[in-house]
Amino acid sequence: MKRNMNLKKVGETNINDKIISYAVVGAIIVAIIIISLLLYSQQINQDVQDETMTLEQMTNMIGDTSNNVEETESASTKIGKTVEESEAENQLEEESTQSQTTQNTSSNQTVESNANATENTTQNTTQNVTSNQETTQEVKELSFQRPVEGDIIKEFAQDNLVYSETLEEWVTHNGIDIKADKTTVVKAAEAGVIKSIKNDPRYGLTIVIEHDDVYQTVYSNLLTSEFVVEGETVEKGQSIGTVGNSAVFEIADEPHLHFEILKNSVPEDPTIYIQ
Fold this sequence. Notes:
The chain has one helix at residues 2-141; strands at residues 152-154, 157-164, 169-173, 176-179, 185-187, 192-200, 204-210, 215-224, 233-234, 239-243, 256-263, 266-268. By secondary structure, it is of the alpha+beta class. Strands 1, 4, 5, 6, 7, 8, 9, 10, 11 and 12 form a ten-stranded antiparallel beta sheet that branches. A two-stranded antiparallel sheet has the order 2-3. The protein is rod-shaped, with a radius of gyration of 69 Å. The chain starts with a helix and ends in a 7-residue tail after the last strand.
């Protein structure tokens, strides 16, 4: 009985040992399988990562290629634009140069025109000064003499008035009245040309002598003018007429010669000029 029991215990012990052995082996196998699975999983992940990196690298490479293409196109475009802009800038520079040249030419022409105008003005001024000097010299060369000898009985009056016996009022007087008997010979005060012989409604028979472009002498209240004709050239002191009493405005005065000197057609005081 004991032996059977011992055998039974031994059998049970063997069975337990076998179960434990199988369990350990199974655990080892499971561990190996798990480890293998883990290693395989890591390998797969590594491969996936490698493949992913490769794709990324390819993508990057493609991207780099695209960038290079874009940069190339951009550079090409920039080069094209630069060429066009360069041509445009050159054209603008040429137009600016032409405009500047035109402006400079216009400015030079204006300067030359102004210079010519200034030169012409200077020449004209010089000519005018010279002409004035010559005129002054010519004026200085003129020396008027009394057309008749006698006292001055009525003065020159422009700024003041003189009394007229004939008109019985105070009036202006454009010349001087030199007392002289009728038929007294009247002589030219200076050489010149007989401009006119006329009957003046105020001062009677009148002779006008033109001496130059500036001066004229007037001889009025004459009796005759038989010694000269219009347009005749007369010398200084040459007889031109005789004293009369033909001046309506001075009919009440003593016999006299009404004598005037005009400068640029403006009456001047004869006493300034006659000797």
